[in-house]
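Lab notes, practical 5.
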Amino acid sequence: MNTITVEQRITVDGEITVKGLPIKRGQYVEVIVVPHEEKTPEKEPLTVHRLKQSGLIGLWKDREDITNSASYARLLREQAELRQHP
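Output from the prediction step:
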């Protein structure tokens, strides 16, 4: 038996409308409703435009303790690679 999962936000108390199912007239189905907490929305892909708006570019420009941001970033990556994960 194949299952079909449909997630939607309820807009009218006590009502659910599901359309576009690959079910034919006369076919028997079982409907199970599982309320759950709101899911975290899927993240949109990071585009150059969104990256520029994020504030990440130039984040270290005013730091006096970081003279070369590329070297500093490389050092952080190397340290992260050496960390042991549980």
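Observations recorded by the TA: The CA atoms of residues 7 and 67 lie 50 Å apart. The mean pLDDT is 86.
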